[in-house]
Structures are given as structure tokens and as C-alpha cells.
Amino acid sequence: MRASIDRFGTTAYGCGDIVHVPVVRAGSWVFGTGLRASLVNGLIDPAVLKPGRPLDAPPKAQREAQKIFERMAAQLTEAGSSTSRVARLDQYYPHPRAVDPYHVARKQALAGQVAPSTSIIVSRLLNLDAAMDVQVIAATSASGYAVQRVQAGLDAPQTSGYAPCVRVGDIVFVAGQLARDAGGNIAAEAKPPAGQLWNGTRISLETGYLISKRLIPALQAAGSSLDLVLKAQVYLSHAEDLPAFWLQWTQAFGRRVPPTTVVPVQHPAFGTAEATIEVNLVAVHETARQRLRDVQCDVELIGEGMVPACVFDGVVFVAGLMGINESGLAESARVRATAPFYHDSARAQMADILSKAKKILGAAGTDLTNVVRALHFHSDLEDFHAIYMEWKNELGALGVPFSAVEVAPEPFVPGARLILDLWGYTPRP
After folding, report:
1. Where in the chain is the domain with CATH 3.30.1330.40?
2. pLDDT digits (tens, 9 = 90+) for 164-179
3. Looking at CB atoms within 10 Å, which of 225, 280, 347, 370 has the fewest?
4. Are strands 328-329 and 315-318 parallel, antiparallel or unpaired?
């Protein structure tokens, strides 16, 4: 299939076999993925690190964020967009102390108009001396889409300054939400009564509160609803909470569970230290309901009853993918105890994941050459090089708009090493 996306800033790292595409333009949208303050060799800019005087003001994390946003502004302009059209930002940090300096730089760079945001604490980034890895989505100038802030009645921390919800064209972006009250703490209704070890499962209470008090009001204020959700990203700080979470999630959505990526992270991982779950959403405005297309095909996902993908405005929103089958780890990824040296389970899992991705994207009318974002959530970043080689098998030197972060040690399934969060593009008829 002929590629229909435009790539910007393609750079080869390491020995030249890791090819990163930081910015992609696809139809009305620009995606920036895996943005760090690195040079063309993949290493963090010495001007950010200041190895001789690392404690000079501003703090290193703020210098790093300034470099990222300076470059982002130029990248968006080159791709036919601008910082004023940013619809969403996501950030991964290996330590919470980087967050406040990042917020200072972000508010300065975006003139105080910060799009919906999700900030997650992870274990490691690809650059061990990096303090952040940033993702951005923006509308193209040619689309005519403007960023409209939605008055959803949701509070957001004043230090971060982000908009909890915006509408851009006919897409609604809801920032990462926690089950917290107006004071920024976990709401009393979202946890068992003080001093009691049961009388309500914590993850069930948090999930139910988050959906009813945060997500639904945001969608309603924006002219959308749960049945119009295109994609959800869910972060759990206790992996064992997955079954109870999924019961609440499927009950809320009913017959149509949207493409959902669930990622286990280590506790604490969110702005409110007590929180155990954070969720962000992308949805369609009610007036555009008829343009939403669900993609159905037979692939094994982590949660039952989920739509594998859906398409809107040319973007393919794909559910989180793992190298699993109905009984656990994919057969091809299982290492035999008596002959462990012949096999690379992580790479085999990636091969299984990409076979699922090809099936889903094919059903959507596109293929792997039109991937616009690939977020790798690893149990151990030592696997990254081997896993990327499966991309190279499929795409050669074309490169991938990827980010890779290390999260919890074992993601939900014994032996699992990777969760892939994929976004694609399909040309309009």
C-alpha cells in the first residue's frame, strides 16, 4: 500500500539500525512521539546536562523541557501546524521531581494555553539521563480546526495549568483523570471507609467514581458520551487490579467497549500519590456520530468484549496489543526450560503483536507503513533493541514514530514483556 503520511526529522540511532521518526503528519493531524532533549546521535544535549555545572539555574528538568518545546515549536511548524493547535500532550517521567520544572517550561512555551495532559511516573526511559519523554497531537493549520476549551467543571492543579477537556474539530480530548475531589485528594466515595480493610474494593470504587464523576461529565459538557469514545488509555498502579477494573469498565460501556490500552505502572505513579488508576479519553462529538467506524476482526486482546480499533477523521485508534492468546503467553513466545538459549521471548512477542496489528490495520484499510504513533510499554528496556528489530523486519529503514518506556515488571500475563499502544492512519476515500 502506498504510504499516505509525511515523516519529519527521521534520525538513526545506535549503529544506525534504530530509526526514529519524531513527527508525522497524517491528514488533519500531526503526531509528535518520543520527544526528548536529544541530539541526532540519540544522546541528551550537553547544553541541557551542563556536566561541569549541573546545578546552574534553571533546574536541569526545566532546561530539558525548554529544549523539547523549542524543538517542538519548530517541528510543528515544519509539519504544517503550530503550538496554538496542540490538542493533547502526554508525558512520562522517571521521577516526580521533574514534573514541576517541566510545567514551568510548558506554560511558558504554550503561552498558558496547555492542552489536555496525562503525566505518568515510569521506571526508566531510553535515555537514562533524561527526565522526560513527551508526546504531542496537534491539528494542521490546513484543517481549520481550532482548539476549543470545554467548560466541564473539572478541576486541574493550578501549577500544571492544563485544560481538562477540549474539542478540536469533531474530536474531544479528555485529560488524564483521577478519582479525586475538588481538593485534589482521592474522594471519600472512591475508597473504603477509613480504618476498614474491606467494605468496598478500592479499584472498583476509584474506577466507578472516575467514570461517573469525571469522565462522563467531561464528555457530556463537550457534546459527547461513552458510546462515542474512540480510545482510552488506562494506567493501573497495581497490576492485580485488572480483573476488578475490567468489570467496572465493561459495565459502564455496555455492549461497545472502546479500544482500550491498559498499562501497569509501579505505585505511586500519579499526581495524587494515593491514586491507583488514571484514565484519558479521545471521543467523537455527537454531531459526527455517523462518521465513526468500528473495526472488527479476530485478535486476542487483554480484555473481553473490546472493539479492536475504530476509525475517525482518517485516524485508526487501536486497542492495546500484547503477545498473548486465550491461554496466556503466545505459543511462539514461550521459552522451553530445557533449551532456553534458542529463543528470544520478547522479540517473539513483538512478532505476534505486529501480526495482530497488521490484521487490525488491514481491516481498517491501511497497513504498518501508516503507523503514526507506537508507544512501547516494556517490562524491561533491555528488550528494546531486539523488539525494534521486528519493526525493521516489517518496514526496513522506513523508521517508526515510537516512544519506549519501562513500566511494571510483568504486564498482567506471566512471561509478558511488552504492551504496544498503536495509532494509525487510513486514507479517506
Report:
1. 1-168, 170-291, 310-429
2. 999 999 999 999 999 9
3. 225
4. unpaired
